[in-house]
Amino acid sequence: MRIVLLGAPGAGKGTQCKSIVAQYGLLHLSSGDILRAERIAGTELGKKAQDYMDSGALVPDEIIIEMMAEAIKKAPAAGFLLDGFPRTVNQAVSLGESLAGNGMKIDVVLNLEIDDNVVAKRMTGRRSCPKCGAVYHVENLKPKVEGQCDNDGTELVQRPDDKPDVVANRLKTYHQQTEPLVDYYRNNGTVYDFDADRNPDEIKTSIFEKLDAPVKT
Ligand code: AP5
């Protein structure tokens, strides 16, 4: 199964990805996580991406398309779940062409729908583990020990792009450049919409129902 997960910043893409990849044995490919790892490693790619990310703008298509094409090559036969990519119509077209060249396609697009006001609240409370990437929230999803990752005890941090002014820019960027992808995929395949302003478990159950449906029929 090859899945694209769409949704505004803070819609809960990373949160839902963990359950989906565990359930279906897919490779989770988050363009944001890959970029953050490149920055921590101090690579040229990471340095090029830094200013775009910290201001809430998109990293240029040519950098992202090449980076994700490399990452997709490592996917198992079971497939992959793309989180944060594609983010522009140009990236989606390029992804489609690259998959078609290998006799593949995106099977389904999951679209998490959320109001901008809810996003703003979620982002300011998000805390992440810089080591394993686990995501928490100071109110909605607390770690067992305050300020520490459940997986490895690392001190949790706030992402630099979760500051309110950068979040506002990220939302603007999303509406201008990424939201048009929902219609792009509606015209080119299957898109399932989910109300993302619910308990994470409820959202997960709705997603599994849709993903299991084609298998049952
Ligand atoms: P990226 O890392 O992809 O960030 P994003 O899309 O903005 O998404 P987030 O990771 O912020 O949010 P999420 O939807 O995963 O939410 P989460 O589950 O963490 O991109 C960062 C930057 O990299 C971009 O701005 C850009 O510069 C660059 N970039 C990346 N990909 C690119 C591309 N393809 N092209 C160009 N540039 C690119 O949840 C958020 C919070 O809410 C958490 O605290 C969580 O605990 C909580 N939460 C989650 N679900 C719920 C729920 N149901 N109820 C209550 N709380 C919840």
What does this structure look like?
The protein has a single domain, classed as 3-Layer(aba) Sandwich (Rossmann fold), CATH 3.40.50. β5 (126-128) and β6 (135-137) form a beta hairpin. Helices cover 50% and strands 14% of the residues. The protein contains 9 helices and 7 strands. The protein is globular. BIS(adenosine)-5'-pentaphosphate (AP5) binds at residues 7, 9-15, 31-32, 35, 52-53, 56-59, 64, 84-85, 87, 91, 122, 125-126, 135-137, 140-141, 161, 170, 198, 200, 203.
Average pLDDT reading = 93
- Beta-strand content bin: 5-15%
Helix fraction, binned, reads 40-55%
Radius of gyration: 17 Å
Q: How many discrete domains?
A: 1
Distance between the termini: 16 Å
Bound molecules: BIS(adenosine)-5'-pentaphosphate
Number of strands: 7
Which residues sit in consecutive blocks of at least 5 with pLDDT less than 50?
none
**Structural class, from helix and strand content?**
alpha/beta
CATH class: Alpha Beta
H/E order of the elements? EHEHHHEHEHEEHHEH
Label the CATH architecture: 3-Layer(aba) Sandwich
Helix count equals: 9
Q: According to CATH, what is the topology?
A: Rossmann fold
For the largest beta-sheet, the strand count, sense and barrel status come to: 5 strands, parallel
Largest sheet, spatial ordering of strands: 2-3-1-4-7
Form type: globular
